[in-house]
Every structure is written in structure tokens, then in C-alpha cells.
């Protein structure tokens, strides 16, 4: 059984004011999977909205592959190899590249950045709070993780503004404020060979190639050098296309999700002052509270898989080549897993959220880094004798991919 109605999760208006929680709840309660239609040249997709079914899809890479791409865009077959990053791989090559990178992102590896992280967190907050009235996104959420990314890439702080701009323009490819060309426009055709169909991706490629040319063979300890000089355990160095796409992936993934989680979490604490008081009174709760921050924020709405064969799943007949979209945000509100899922509870335990995925080979590589960034940010912020309040509405990114916040004006009171 499947459900097909006029409702489509391809409709960006559903996401104009943040996550459409009621829509997700309705879809979880319907039998089978829901089919969302799309405008040509795309062909529509099946939505997986229940927690345990999402997990099944993520773990079954033989039936539901990432190799046909993980966003809703249907990439031309002749361009797939040119655009393929770690996200769009399965099997041996995926494991080889992931293993090459994962040593830089283990809890032990990221712990060495703690002193550095505390220093830049303090500076970010000092500068923002001194202004008394400011945009929390611009002054705090965007500033902090991008400085961490600059350190990992080995680039100067003076480049951070450009890195933020590139991320905005690529991830915001469905938002007229951010996109150079909207992803579904005729103008985007000239950029179909790069991720997000964005001219910003062309600029990121050029920036990455310049860094690579400077560092190849120099024995550096940064991520650019690792991509340039590293040899995955399958013995095959990264091709030029693989360097480009995976460098771009680091630029986007190293900033966007943490940035939006910080903003959502500050907003959720302002909405739930009793939860903020708990953390202020007992900072030892903060490391665990981060899991609720991540669950409630759900910074990435979805990732897509593609069926490799005809299969029956959740009483739904799926055809080979059909897009199957796992909605992490919906899974994070599934009441079969989370008691009272719309309650923000910093002591929630257990908290097996899926903001980084949930099992399977594509679990977010940077999850330990994101956790330490979030922990240090809120340990510092909540230790300060300051009170913030919003001074205007939250402005959400027009996107059904990233649960993003563009602006959140606040002031110190």
C-alpha cells in the first residue's frame, strides 16, 4: 500500500517557516510510503518518515544505493563520476576514502582542538555580546564553526567570510536570497556539472585547486594535504574530480550543520527557559544535552537513496531506479521511539536521534567534531552572566534539504 496525494514534500512553501512537523506526523501515521511528485525533469520520490524504516534503508546499501546521488536532483548519468564525492559512493571505494579521512575526526583526534576551540569560542562570544544587539547567526553561529573549518583546512581567518558566502550560495540554491541561480531554473543548466548547480561550486573548486598546488608534497598536517597526498587503502589516489568534490564537501559539511544546530539550540533554550536554567545550574548536564540539541534541531532534513531493484518496502511497491528519501527530521519526532517527542528535554535519556544518520556506512564522519564544538559553545555561553532575548522573527532558509536559519536577531537584556 502507498499513499499519493496532492501533498508533495518537494513543495518548498511547506518549509518556509521551518520544519513542517505536522506534515511529517501525518505521513508517519499513514500506511505505506508517500509519493511526492516533482516538476520535470525530476520524477518524484518515495518518502520514508518512520524512524525504524529510515534505519532499514540506511543500512541496506545493496537495495538502496547512494551512488545515484543523495539530494533530490537527478544528475545526468554522464556527469555522475565528475560530481561524485564520498557521499555518493558505496562499497570498497567509499570505505577506502572514509578510512583515509576518519582518523582526523575520531573523538580522540578532535579532542586535541579543545584549547583552540575554547579560545575562538570566547572571542566570538566576547565580540558578539559587546554589541548588545546583534544577529545571532552572523555574529555567533556562522562565525564559530567556520573558524574551526579554516583551522582544519589550514587557511587564514581572512578567508572565513568567503567560505561562509560559498556555503550560503550552494546550500541556499533553492532560496532566492542566497542563490546565484536557483537550482530549478534554466540558468542552472550551465552549472549542472558541479554540485548544487551553483557557480559558487566552480569558485570552491578553483580555491581548492590553488591550495592543492601550494601543498602537494609539502608534508602538511591539514585536510587539504591529506586529500592531495593521502593514499586510500585501495591504493588509488584521489583523482582530480574526487579532490574537487571532496574538498567542496568539507567546505559545506564542516560549517552548515553545526552552524544551524547552534542557532536552533539557542532558540530552543530561549523558548524553554526552565531547560536553560537546568543547564546553567548544573553544567555537567551539557554534554548529554547536546544530543537533545541535535535531535530537536534536525539540521539536515533528508538524504536520498535510489532503489537498485524492484522491491516491496513498507507495503509499497518500489521500482528499480525510484528515489527513496529518508527524512531524518521526521524520524527525530517519531513517538514510537521518543516519548513526548515535541518536548525539548535536555535530560532525555536514551536519545538515539538520527541527526547524523543512524547506523549504516554513511554515518556522519564529523559527528565527534560537531559535538565538541556544540559542547564548548554552550559551556561558555551558559556560564556567562548574560540574558538574551529575541528582538524579531526567525528567518528560515527556503529549503527542504537543510533546516537552516538565516537570521535570528537578539539583544542582551
Automatic annotation (TrEMBL):
SUPFAM superfamilies: Cytochrome P450
GO molecular function: cholest-4-en-3-one 26-monooxygenase activity; heme binding; iron ion binding; steroid hydroxylase activity
UniProt keyword Transmembrane, yes or no: no
Any single biological process term in GO: cholesterol catabolic process
UniProt keyword terms in alphabetical order: Heme, Iron, Metal-binding, Monooxygenase, Oxidoreductase
Keyword Flavoprotein: no
Family: Belongs to the cytochrome P450 family.
Protein name (database record): Cytochrome P450
Natural source organism: Microcella alkalica
